[in-house]
Amino acid sequence: MVRTVLTPDETQTVLPIGLELTLQSADELQTRIDHGEVLTPKELEKYLPKQADYNAVKTWLQSQGFAITLDLVVG
What we know:
single chain; mainly alpha
């Protein structure tokens, strides 16, 4: 049996989800870690996902009716 309509309680249910964006130059970062390098927070920033990619995903999710409850700034 498949239902196509949610109950009022179901429509108010919070379903937490998390998404991951791909790191930039992940192979380079892994190599540095494998060599035992200790990176500063500033050095790590270059490996974070691009802010534009984050914003695009966030905008799409909001356009689909998702509520953003934890908003991170990348880079």
